[in-house]
Input
Amino acid sequence: MSPTAVLMVGAVGTYVLRVMFISLIPAHRLPERLRHSLQMVGPAALAALVATDIGHAAGHPASIWPTVAAVIAAGAIAALTKNLALTIIARLLGGLLVAVVSCSPTTDPSTPGVRPGKTSRRTMPAQLANDQIRSGYNDNPGTNKELAIQWFDHISTGNLDGLRAMTSQSWVMVGGPPGLPAGHEGIRLLFEHIGEIDQTWTIEDVIAEGDKVVVRATNTCVQESFFGVPGAGITQVFSAIFILQFADGLVVNTWRNAADLQRLFQLGARILPPA
Output
């Protein structure tokens, strides 16, 4: 039930009970202490409703300030007019404003076509990722997209511990170095094979379907050598497409298709016809 509906039900219920109480038990028959306590019931109930309303809005940052403004406006109208109808109307209008603000569309940074630059600008906090993995939301394609982006951020920064935490012990990579073993040992040997490198993955597109996420990305790097071709001091830029498969919030399979030949040409390599 919405906060506005709770406010309306509470107001009507309180009014009915008040009429019944006054009709059945005249005030002059009540002890003085009880009469004084009853005077506090109305403000206490209103304070509880206001606290509930603001507490509900606290979970939605976009609506917290409109909610506070609506409560203050309704309180001011009640104090100035002493009119219950005007107060209710003001609160209903305020609730409508809060609903409009809360439902305003926001930009999803994981939407395909958004180009954020470095993957670190779109990284999901590690604690959030772990919480979602534990709570079972990892089967959601939208969550898998965020996990895929974070996975690439760990590659960009060379964070082996972060990669291991997000990768299954049975992980297999297709399209990487030949003979790469499965699991975390494969990740260690992959970075050992890459060697000294300064790289950034720029995510171009992220598409999720079922348990798989397709990532089209551009890599900008400086690497000592690539396939034996010296590359120190040479900035290389190449594109790649990856497919990541998730299970229980972990990457279990990676398929890689990258423009490695493009990199070799940038390093000065040439294809020579047979002698």
